[in-house]
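Researcher: Structure prediction, please.
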Amino acid sequence: MKRKVFAFAFCLFCSSLLLLAGCTSEEPSSWAVYNGATIEESFPVPKEASKTDVTADNTKMSYVRYSVPGLDSLDQIPPAYLNAIKAWGWTEETDQENREEANPILIFSKGNTTVHLSLEGSYLTVLVPKEN
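Model: Predicted structure follows.
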């Protein structure tokens, strides 16, 4: 009798582990909490992102590049991040053809502000066109 109870408990435990493993998110935790970007506070970037480069040399664009844990294993921007951008009030202006490219530049707008977002290797780059 003890053997049957032990076997049942073991099967129940293994089933629970499989269920939990199947229900976990495939996206890294880096894409769950956001702060405002350095160059545009109203545009979200993952909280775990580390700023790696900023330049003021370009007369047409300001940009900041971020390193995000787990980014190098992704081939596209996670849907959770795109949903967060929309939740922060930004509207995507990118045409769908651009999305099929290897490193698409996504364009978002909010009011009179435009932000370009690029995923390049292990970096996420936020670009803001300068006003003339």
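Model: The chain has one domain: 27-129.
Researcher: Thanks, that helps.
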